[in-house]
Amino acid sequence: MGPRTASLYFDCSSAKFDGTTQLVRGEVRTAYEDTEPPAAARKGHLRVLHDSSRALSDLLGCEGGTGITGAFAMPPEAWQ
Fold it and tell me: pTM of the prediction?
Protein backbone atom coordinates (compact mmCIF):
# COMPACT_ATOMS: atom_id res chain seq x y z
CA MET A 1 0.00 0.00 0.00
CA GLY A 2 1.55 3.27 -1.06
CA PRO A 3 0.72 6.88 -0.29
CA ARG A 4 -2.10 6.79 -2.88
CA THR A 5 -4.08 4.06 -1.06
CA ALA A 6 -5.32 3.79 2.52
CA SER A 7 -7.38 1.04 4.22
CA LEU A 8 -9.13 0.87 7.58
CA TYR A 9 -11.04 -1.98 9.23
CA PHE A 10 -13.40 -1.71 12.19
CA ASP A 11 -15.94 -3.88 13.97
CA CYS A 12 -19.52 -2.67 14.00
CA SER A 13 -22.23 -4.08 16.20
CA SER A 14 -25.52 -2.56 15.15
CA ALA A 15 -29.25 -3.19 15.13
CA LYS A 16 -28.95 -2.77 11.35
CA PHE A 17 -27.02 -6.06 11.39
CA ASP A 18 -29.60 -7.75 13.67
CA GLY A 19 -27.28 -7.14 16.63
CA THR A 20 -24.39 -9.10 15.14
CA THR A 21 -20.88 -7.70 14.82
CA GLN A 22 -19.63 -7.17 11.28
CA LEU A 23 -16.16 -6.29 10.04
CA VAL A 24 -16.34 -3.10 7.98
CA ARG A 25 -13.54 -2.20 5.57
CA GLY A 26 -12.98 1.26 4.16
CA GLU A 27 -10.53 2.18 1.45
CA VAL A 28 -9.43 5.39 -0.22
CA ARG A 29 -7.61 5.37 -3.55
CA THR A 30 -6.60 8.08 -5.92
CA ALA A 31 -5.61 7.74 -9.55
CA TYR A 32 -3.88 11.10 -9.54
CA GLU A 33 -0.29 11.80 -8.69
CA ASP A 34 0.12 13.55 -5.37
CA THR A 35 1.52 17.05 -5.44
CA GLU A 36 2.86 16.83 -1.90
CA PRO A 37 5.57 14.67 -0.32
CA PRO A 38 4.61 10.98 0.26
CA ALA A 39 4.31 11.33 4.07
CA ALA A 40 1.96 14.32 3.76
CA ALA A 41 -0.10 12.54 1.08
CA ARG A 42 -0.36 9.44 3.28
CA LYS A 43 -1.56 11.54 6.20
CA GLY A 44 -4.15 13.25 4.00
CA HIS A 45 -5.52 9.96 2.68
CA LEU A 46 -5.68 8.48 6.18
CA ARG A 47 -7.45 11.58 7.51
CA VAL A 48 -10.14 11.30 4.80
CA LEU A 49 -10.54 7.59 5.53
CA HIS A 50 -10.75 8.17 9.30
CA ASP A 51 -13.38 10.89 8.97
CA SER A 52 -15.50 8.96 6.47
CA SER A 53 -15.28 5.78 8.59
CA ARG A 54 -16.50 7.72 11.64
CA ALA A 55 -19.39 9.07 9.59
CA LEU A 56 -20.26 5.58 8.31
CA SER A 57 -20.07 4.19 11.86
CA ASP A 58 -22.53 6.88 12.97
CA LEU A 59 -24.88 6.18 10.05
CA LEU A 60 -24.84 2.45 10.78
CA GLY A 61 -25.47 3.08 14.46
CA CYS A 62 -22.41 1.11 15.54
CA GLU A 63 -22.22 0.62 19.28
CA GLY A 64 -19.11 1.78 21.14
CA GLY A 65 -15.89 -0.10 20.69
CA THR A 66 -15.30 0.39 16.95
CA GLY A 67 -11.79 1.57 17.78
CA ILE A 68 -12.20 4.72 15.70
CA THR A 69 -11.11 7.64 17.83
CA GLY A 70 -12.90 10.97 17.85
CA ALA A 71 -9.86 12.86 16.61
CA PHE A 72 -7.55 11.73 13.83
CA ALA A 73 -4.12 10.62 15.01
CA MET A 74 -1.41 8.75 13.16
CA PRO A 75 0.89 6.30 14.95
CA PRO A 76 4.60 6.95 14.28
CA GLU A 77 5.01 3.73 12.27
CA ALA A 78 2.46 5.03 9.73
CA TRP A 79 4.92 7.76 8.74
CA GLN A 80 7.40 5.20 7.44
Answer: 0.74
